[in-house]
């Protein structure tokens, strides 16, 4: 009875008795659930059809599919689509996004291009579908693209998927509550897990918001989602939600660009210009952004968190710069095994040589600033807006309460 033990451990120290449920890939599932609460009513039936659901349809169960299949031979190529790293990026010393030497890895094989690519695939698919011209291959491609899109929007809102340093923090061992973990796992789940253990008890009761409650699935993190929606999306972030969806209307010229490059881009237009001048234009030379969908523009402030808070300076100062690191071999892999969080809380605290991050200065500051909750809110609202933009039937006159659109 592994899961019930975990529930008890989570409940200790707070008054909540969460329902028994697996952890899974918590962050992805939360973002997918928040997104689902903000879909136009015409969208979910189309998504369920594409996902070929029989029975209860929900986006959360497919949100971590891309992590589960990335080790299979036919999907191994998709590994680098989960993240992006700039060549000169080394938080907290420098945060290049990108610097003069551009991006690591192969061109257009990264999480931001993944968002652009899957969105394009789904847009073409909808064109064919409206014309009644889809084949079985199109249906399969749309299903894969949708599952990847749901996942990549989640990955993009995880700061460690936007830096190449130490395999997105997987190679940096740290201590959390005197238990050994790594920086990536800490941000994947442990920060959220701690928030759930200490959530105010009033979130175990349903909110007076039927369109929120109807999307919850009885998971251990339902109270956390309620809090993110109540205090975040309908609370402190209410007035900035629209700004999370805007893209720069005109590609602005960044300081790195030379006069020669400016001339090229003015002369030939942005798209041609950005192919020629590489990494110096508004979307970092990725060709991902336009005036409607702009993953690079959205990602830039999330990447900046790596220098602001994610990588503590102490990691690069004695004595912690001398402890040797090791970790899993897969780049930027999220360990979405059900067990990784459980194993953490079940393991005994022990003296270890790593930097302790369950401190007021680190986890406390992240909690006070609502950093993880803001990322969950942004991921959910942006995913909903992209899906609404792709799939909503705007002639449908159902009154809209919580719908955002690009
Ligand atoms: C783009 O998406 C299509 C369909 O999902 C896939 O076949 C293709 O390999 C993708 N390319 C990149 C660079 O992501
Ligand atoms: C729950 O309690 C907190 C104070 O601890 C309050 O700020 C919040 O608004 C309450 N939430 C609900 C849904 O009543
Ligand atoms: C919109 O909000 C009203 C009032 O809060 C509620 O009665 C109604 O059910 C909501 N509509 C939808 C589609 O959720
Ligand atoms: C996660 O939990 C679910 C539900 O208990 C189970 O079906 C699944 O096999 C588990 N996956 C892993 C990787 O442990
Ligand atoms: C994921 O976590 C589980 C449980 O802690 C562990 O057995 C497994 O080796 C981990 N996988 C990776 C790739 O780190």
UniProtKB/TrEMBL annotation:
One of its GO terms (biological process) is DNA catabolic process. Pfam families: S1-P1_nuclease (PF02265). This is Phospholipase C/P1 nuclease domain-containing protein. Keywords: Disulfide bond, Endonuclease, Glycoprotein, Hydrolase, Metal-binding, Nuclease, Signal. The lineage of its organism: Eukaryota, Fungi, Dikarya, Basidiomycota, Agaricomycotina. InterPro entries: PLipase_C/P1_nuclease_dom_sf, S1/P1nuclease. Residues 1-22 form the signal peptide. Belongs to the nuclease type I family. GO terms for molecular function: endonuclease activity; hydrolase activity, acting on ester bonds; metal ion binding; nucleic acid binding. Coiled coil: none annotated.
């Amino acid at each position: 009875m592994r899961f019930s033990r975990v529930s008890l451990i989570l409940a200790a120290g707070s008054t909540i008795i969460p329902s028994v449920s697996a952890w899974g890939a918590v962050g992805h599932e939360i973002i997918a659930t928040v997104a689902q609460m903000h879909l136009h009513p015409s969208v979910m039936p189309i998504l369920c059809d594409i996902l070929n659901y029989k029975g209860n349809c929900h986006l959360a169960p497919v949100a971590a599919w891309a992590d589960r299949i990335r080790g299979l031979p036919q999907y191994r190529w998709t590994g680098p689509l989960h993240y992006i790293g700039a060549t000169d990026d080394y938080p907290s010393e420098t945060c290049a996004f990108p610097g003069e030497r551009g991006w690591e890895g192969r061109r257009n094989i990264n999480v931001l291009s993944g968002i652009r690519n899957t969105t394009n695939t789904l847009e073409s698919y909808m064109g064919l579908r409206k014309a009644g011209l889809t084949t079985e291959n199109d249906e399969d491609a749309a299903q894969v693209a949708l599952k990847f899109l749901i996942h990549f929007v989640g990955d993009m809102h995880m700061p460690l998927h936007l830096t190449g340093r130490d395999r997105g923090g997987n190679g940096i061992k740290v201590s959390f509550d005197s238990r050994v973990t790594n920086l990536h796992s800490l941000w994947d789940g442990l920060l959220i897990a701690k928030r759930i253990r200490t959530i105010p008890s009033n979130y175990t009761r349903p909110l007076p918001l039927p369109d929120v409650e109807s999307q919850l699935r009885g998971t251990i993190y339902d109270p956390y989602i309620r809090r993110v929606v109540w205090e975040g999306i309908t609370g402190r972030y209410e007035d900035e939600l629209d700004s999370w969806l805007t893209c720069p209307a005109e590609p602005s010229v960044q300081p790195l660009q030379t006069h020669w490059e400016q001339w090229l881009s003015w002369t030939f237009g942005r798209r041609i210009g950005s192919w020629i001048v590489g990494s110096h234009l508004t979307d970092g030379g990725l060709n991902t952004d336009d005036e409607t969908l702009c993953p690079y523009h959205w990602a830039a402030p999330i990447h900046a968190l790596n220098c602001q808070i994610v990588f503590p300076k102490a990691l690069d100062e004695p004595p912690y710069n001398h402890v040797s690191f090791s970790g899993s071999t897969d780049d930027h892999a999220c360990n979405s095994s059900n067990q990784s969080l459980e194993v953490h809380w079940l393991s005994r605290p022990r003296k270890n040589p790593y930097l302790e991050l369950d401190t007021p200065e680190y986890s406390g500051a992240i909690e006070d600033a609502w950093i993880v909750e803001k990322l969950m809110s942004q991921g959910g609202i942006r995913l909903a807006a992209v899906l609404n933009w792709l799939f909503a039937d705007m002639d449908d006159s159902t009154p809209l309460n919580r719908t955002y659109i690009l």
